[in-house]
């Protein structure tokens, strides 16, 4: 195992994973535990994963670890976002209605996000809350940029549908 590779991976990925987990409602301590568990798995299975896919594999391990904790503890995590910034970024991409920006709807944005499929919610948070580029999201998840654009389009449409359902 290449310890320098692992150290570089930790430097690159731990902040992104930590931010993602916090945005999904994890406490600081839970996020640190999940990151630690993910890196322990990385150490165990690193030899079986190609270096090009190690970053995206690690991110997916962290997401799966988070979801397993939710199931195991039957704990409900509420997405923690800066709703106004998220919404402004979303509207810049796809201007489906301008009246959605009112401050009274912040709670509804969180509710709507929490009703989405996990994958779509993840993509929207990575793009509009964490403000990662399509390329960065693709590298994290192990997909091409064009695939990420397609998935994000579908996620935005699911968000819009859920939002309009609550109108």
Instruction: Please give the number of β-strands.
Output: 0
Shape: globular
Task: Give the total of domains.
Answer: 2
- In CATH terms, the superfamily of the largest domain is Winged helix-like DNA-binding domain superfamily/Winged helix DNA-binding domain
Structure description:
The chain is mostly helical and 167 residues long. The protein contains eight helices and no strands. It folds into two domains: 71 residues; 83 residues, Winged helix-like DNA-binding domain superfamily/Winged helix DNA-binding domain (Arc Repressor Mutant, subunit A).
Helices and strands in order:
Elements (H helix, E strand, L loop, with lengths): L2 H21 L4 H18 L8 H20 L9 H11 L12 H10 L2 H12 L4 H8 L3 H21 L2
Please sum up the structure shown.
The chain folds into two domains: 3-73; 83-165, Winged helix-like DNA-binding domain superfamily/Winged helix DNA-binding domain (Arc Repressor Mutant, subunit A), CATH 1.10.10.10. It has helices at residues 3-23, 28-45, 54-73, 83-93, 106-115, 118-129, 134-141, 145-165.
